[in-house]
Amino acid sequence: MSNESSTPSPDPTKPAAAAAAPAARSAPPPVVPPPVVPPPRKRSRIKRFFLWWLAGIAAALLIWTLVALNWSYSAGDRGGLLQKFERKGWLCKTYEGQLALYAAPGLPPEMWSFTVRDKAVADQVAGLVGERVQLHYVEHRGLPSSCFGETGFFVDRVTPAPSPTSPVLPDATTPGAAAADAVAPGVAAPTATPRAP
User: Is residue 109 domain-resident?
Assistant: First the structure.
């Protein structure tokens, strides 16, 4: 009996526990459901539409500005007395000037306003204030902002003009000019005689 008591007897509950342990290890983990994504809100659609609308307006404005600046409506020259020329503006500083256009003596002049965008031309125009000048301009219509200039007339060239009060003398090389002024020796120059009433 002592031999029987020294050998351990198999426990009938152990094989069942050992078989249950592998079964517990091979069980799949619990399935976690994916997070529920709420449908897109109406507010985000409106915000997206508003942003696309603003981007479209900005692109159209940019294209319009580029077309208006690179395409000229008219071009030409104007001559007159340069009255004033200044650099002005609150945020966008531009060179602005006024040219007095005289149609006839005794009539008040018509004032023509213009803009200069080039600094080198602006320096030339500033040196001719108070003198008669001839300005070459290009007209751009439909500019969306006054940052390009207060007027649509952009002057790109200035030329000093002769004063109309300066006497025009005949050229000595013109045929007949010297003969008309010459008087034969011994002959008195003709004088105007008053007519009798």
Answer: yes
